Amino acid sequence: MSILKGVGVALVTPFNEDLSVDFDSLTKLVEYNIENGTNYLVVLGTTAEAATLSTEEKKQVVDHIIKVNNKRLPLVLGIGGNNTLEVKKQIEETDLSDFTAVLSVSPYYNKPNQEGLYQHYKTLASTGKNIIIYNVPSRTGQNVEAETTLRLANEFPNLFLIKEAAPNILQYFDVLRKKPEGFNLVSGDDEYTLPVTLAGGAGVISVIGQGYPKEFSTMVQLAFDKKVDEAYEIHNKLVEITRLIFAEGNPCGIKVVLAEKGLIKNYLRLPLVPASERLYAKIKVEMAKI
């Protein structure tokens, strides 16, 4: 699956003022990313506010992105949850012919122990589909430890990649150091993208990347080429905006960036609310500098 290398972006779902899905803006966003060097698109991830979309809306969003993308970039589909058998069933019943892999977040709220997390992904692996493990303890309440990731990686070849967003960067390095051949790690934290890629990671599944696809994909390519100074020049230019977009939660910050670039309108569905005026102003100032 070396096809999923470089910058994948977790696309937002644009909304109209009446909070219906804004398909015109979604088209613009997909085209903007394809034209500016994004390597693959992640559909219906957390950033897409997928939890607030109805089953019918999810289907419409998926169909629309498949159509607009028109096989130009690899696609990844988010299918996750905290009911293991239900997630397995969904993966089995979804037409994945247009998707390279499924991104599946570790079970949230239930707080399973490491054996429970292992058994969860073992069950998903039994579908035979290509699955990306997604570890994001800040959202799920439980960390998939490096040892558990490596156990899964060694036993199930179709669990071929982890999107790692543990708060401790040493965990990323432990996985990279001990992983079997054929298993990869991408950063799930935009700010860690460069050091993790330089340490042998396969890039990032990014939020800020969809706002600055050209810069972010150039930075990651420079990292692959081991052009460290040039890569850090771009990293340093984007650090402040990267921090700002997460200051009040995701995706309220990235929606400001995309709205300012004229790609989408700045609407979110409850329980999320748009960025405060103060944060909006700060993001605008930082964008002007970039």
From TrEMBL:
- Marked site: Part of a proton relay during catalysis: 46, 109
Q: Where does pyruvate bind?
A: 47, 205
InterPro entries xref list: Aldolase_TIM, DapA, DapA-like
Gene3D superfamilies to which the protein is assigned, alphabetical: Aldolase class I (3.20.20.70)
Coiled-coil features, chain-numbered ranges: none
**Compartment(s) where it occurs, according to its Swiss-Prot or TrEMBL record:** Cytoplasm
Q: Where is the active site?
A: 134 (proton donor/acceptor), 163 (schiff-base intermediate with substrate)
Assembly state and interactors?
Homotetramer; dimer of dimers.
What is the designated name of this protein?
A: 4-hydroxy-tetrahydrodipicolinate synthase
Q: Which organism is it from?
A: Chryseobacterium luquanense
The gene it comes from is dapA
